[in-house]
Amino acid sequence: MEFSDDLRPYTHVDNGHKKPxxxxxxxxxxxxxxxxxxxxLLTDEKTxxxxxxxxxxxxxEILKNLQEDGRLTNVELAGKVALSPSPCLxxxxxxxxxxxxxxxxxxxxxKTVGLGMTVFVEMRVGKQSKAQIxxxxxxxxxxxxxxxxxxxxxxSDILAEIVVPTLEAYDVFLSxxxxxxxxxxxxRSNFAIRTLKAxxxxxxxxxxxxxxxx
Length: 214
Description:
Mean pLDDT: 83
Order of helices and strands: EEHHHHEHEEHEH
Number of strands: 6
Helix content: 25-40%
């Protein structure tokens, strides 16, 4: 993670608004503590970032088809992957039980339900203990307006995708919630002008080469 050496007494927040930056006794110590806290969070993650070597080509075909249409019946899915219904159902259940398939949900058109504004918000954390970072993450991810949230490298520490009906609604969310988060010293808002792609299927091509090598 990169950090700015900018020690200005004020930090830019959104559209020109500034708020005083609270400085600790050592800026370098703050940065090192934040790095340690982020590394600790990543180390504690239970998710393994290794490909599922137990998957085969039929499993990949099942995943591709369900990503395209999660409402396929088992009979329809079996026909698409050239299996009889019973073994197809067993494979789907195995994919669900092993955590490869997390669940099924409807993809709702945001504009048709009045959520016409998408904002990508960058937050920089000023206080660096693991407990403080976890508290911020828990508060942010608990908000229904936040549809995705990530720890990121670079000048910011947290990147959140927020959907709201209007600019006025985001102004309220920004003022009443984001700006009240203890430990967040910089908030930057990036407004989506037009959504070109969203909720895309996961690419699985890298698993095909692993399966071919087995």
